[in-house]
Design a protein that fits this description.
elongated; about 65% helix; 11 helices; about 190 residues; 3-stranded antiparallel beta sheet
């Protein structure tokens, strides 16, 4: 409904009565849903003015994740594993879409850059994979992953070059093996 009506951050949403009629739900159900959305920080109610859409992108989404599902160590490991799966799927897509020019440009960047981050590297791979949904999920997961105190890993430049070499050969096995080596996943082949 927000999309159909073209509503944006700061816009007023219809009243409970209007929502109830439009969505064909009872007012108590609508009121409960609005209360839940407000607790999540997605909308805000201003006394005497109405209910408005809040800007809930970016860091607030990470806060929502951490508040509700990322409270234990297993959930944190799951974030790392899911981030890896998305990166691997983006590598699979990139294998289909990568050109020699992409590979040459990335290799030159990796070799000549004084420093670059793992995020910058994989953001470029994800751009090549050309999947907007993977990109958005990866951005959310990596934002939470890097907000954890114990995730400051430095990867080796030669491992990035090895990954690019395998990607340039368009060999799935070599590409995933190079990814496993980059991530230092000893049981990579058994696990993934």
């Amino acid at each position: 409904m927000i999309t159909i009506d073209g509503l944006k951050t700061g816009d007023k949403i219809p009243s409970e009565r209007e929502l109830s009629e439009r969505l064909n739900f009872g007012r108590s159900s609508v009121r409960e849903a609005l209360r839940a959305l407000e607790l999540l920080g997605l909308i805000e109610t201003r006394r005497g003015e109405g209910t408005f859409i809040r800007d809930f992108r970016g860091h607030q989404l990470v806060q929502l994740l951490s508040t509700f599902i990322l409270q234990d160590e297993k959930a944190k490991r799951d974030v790392f594993e899911t981030k890896n799966y998305i990166e691997m799927d983006c590598l699979r897509l990139a294998l289909q879409r990568v050109t020699n020019q992409h590979i040459d440009t990335l290799k030159e960047w990796v070799i000549k850059a004084n420093s670059f981050t793992d995020d910058e590297f994989f953001h470029r791979i994800i751009e090549i994979s050309d999947n907007h949904l993977f990109s958005r999920m990866w951005l959310i997961l990596k934002e939470y992953y890097y907000s954890l105190d114990d995730n400051h890993v430095n990867y080796k430049r030669e491992n990035y070059l090895g990954l690019l070499e395998a990607l340039g050969e368009k060999d799935l096995g070599k590409t995933l093996s190079a990814y496993g080596k980059l991530r230092n996943l000893s049981d990579f082949n058994d696990k993934y």
